[in-house]
Design a protein that fits this description.
single chain, mainly alpha, flat
């Protein structure tokens, strides 16, 4: 049997690759989320919430720097 090489990967440029991290959720929260969001959409949904939270945080920090908050 021939020896197989290592997989090459996704072939995506470094800026487009994903970083794998682990998040911990309370079981009740995860169950509610899993019941409400289909498995195929969970990653995209969590990314969307994270992007919204980042934008909100940036807006809040920006308004504090302007003396409005």
């Amino acid at each position: 049997m021939a020896k197989m090489g290592r997989p090459v990967g996704s072939g995506k440029p470094p800026g487009e690759k994903f970083v794998m991290k682990t998040f911990r959720f309370p079981p009740a929260l995860w169950k509610e989320f899993a019941d409400a969001v289909p498995m195929s959409l969970r990653s995209a949904t969590i990314r969307g919430y994270m992007e919204e939270a980042i934008q909100k945080s940036k807006r809040q920090r920006g308004s504090k720097k302007d003396g409005k908050g």
